[in-house]
Amino acid sequence: MRQAHTMLVKPLKGCTRLKSWAMRIARRAGMKKAKVALARKLAVILHRMLADETLFNIAAKPMTVE
Length: 66
Known about the structure:
The protein is mostly helical and 66 residues long. The protein has three helices and no strands. The protein has helices at 2-9, 16-29, 31-52. The radius of gyration is 13 Å and the shape is globular. It comes from Mesorhizobium sangaii. This is Transposase.
């Protein structure tokens, strides 16, 4: 849980979509809920990557929801 907090508080390069998503939740519902939501979102992403055996590629273009 500590890493989710670090991501929300410190300026980071990259991960700006996740951070902005979490900060919108923080403004609406509070920082505690935003931390939990971010941790859950990261867990779901990692679980999906493990299930699909997808390798992390930082250079890949982010997927868009249409």
